[in-house]
Design a protein that fits this description.
This protein is α/β, with parallel strands linked by helices. Helix content is 41%, strand content 17%. Helix 4 links the parallel strand 3 and strand 4. It is globular and about 50 Å long. Bound molecules: flavin mononucleotide (FMN).
C-alpha cells in the first residue's frame, strides 16, 4: 500500500521560493512510491482562524476546510516545508495548521526548512518541532535544511550546484526515516486503536 504523504507549504508571497523545495519533496517521495500531494496553504486559502474545523456543526464547515480535513484524516504522514520569517514559522502555514487538531493525531511528521541564507530556516524548523508535537504528531529526527534556496533548487524544483548535491545526498535518509515511522504508526493503529 502506497504511503499517503501530505507535503504542506504556507508562503503567501508573490515571489515565494519555498515552493521549489515543496515540489522537490513531492517529486522525490512520489519517485519512491509514495502517494505524495502538495497542500499549498495559499491555494487552499483558509481565512485567518476564526472557528476551528471541529467547531463547525457536522457538514457545516466551508468546503475547502472540509476537503482538507478529509485529506489530513486519511493521510499516513506529513512533511512540513517551513521558511523562516524573523526566526519564526510562516503565518500562512501556521494558520492552516491551527484549523485542525485531532485530525493530525497519531501520524509521523517531518520538517524540511529553508531560507534565503545559510541558516536554512533552522530556527523556524526548531519552533515547528514543538508545534507539531503539541498537535499530536510524532516528529521524526531527520530533517532537511536548505539554504540558500535560490542556489540549491531551480524554479522547477530541480537540484542545482553544490547545495543541490547536498540535498540529493540528504533526501534518502530523510525519506527512509519518514517511511519507517509511517509504516510503524499505520501498523500500530491497525493493531490497537489510539487511546484517545
Ligand atoms: C518577513 C520576512 C522575514 C524573514 N526573516 C528571515 C529570518 O529570520 N531568517 C532567514 O534566514 N531568512 C529570513 N527571511 C528570508 C527568507 O528566508 C526568504 O525570503 C525565503 O525565500 C522566504 O520563503 P518564501 O520565499 O517561500 O516566502 C525573511 C523574509 C521575509 C519576507
Amino acid at each position: 500500500m502506497a504511503d499517503k504523504v501530505l507535503v504542506l507549504y504556507g508562503s503567501y508571497r508573490s515571489d515565494r521560493m519555498g515552493v521549489r523545495l515543496a515540489d522537490y519533496l513531492v517529486t522525490g517521495l512520489a519517485a519512491r512510491g509514495a502517494q505524495a500531494e502538495l497542500v499549498d496553504a495559499k491555494a487552499v486559502n483558509l481565512p485567518m482562524l476564526d472557528r476551528m474545523y471541529k467547531e463547525y456543526a457536522k457538514g457545516a464547515a466551508p468546503a475547502p476546510m472540509e476537503a482538507l480535513a478529509e485529506k489530513i484524516r486519511t493521510a499516513d504522514a506529513f512533511v512540513f516545508v517551513t521558511g523562516e520569517y524573523n526566526w519564526g514559522p510562516q503565518p500562512g502555514l501556521k494558520n492552516l495548521t491551527d484549523h485542525f487538531l485531532e485530525e493530525w493525531f497519531w501520524r509521523p511528521a517531518a520538517i524540511a526548512s529553508y531560507s534565503a541564507g545559510r541558516f536554512s530556516g533552522a530556527r523556524a524548523g526548531t519552533v515547528w518541532h514543538g508545534i507539531l508535537s503539541e498537535m499530536g504528531m510524532v516528529v521524526i529526527s531527520s530533517t532537511i535544511a536548505v539554504g540558500p534556496i535560490a542556489q540549491t533548487l531551480d524554479i522547477d524544483g530541480k537540484p542545482i550546484g553544490s547545495g543541490g548535491e547536498a540535498l540529493q545526498k540528504a533526501f534518502p535518509r530523510f525519506a527512509d526515516d519518514l517511511a519507517w515511522w509511517t509504516e510503524a504508526a499505520r501498523e500500530q493503529r491497525a493493531r490497537k486503536a489510539p487511546p484517545y
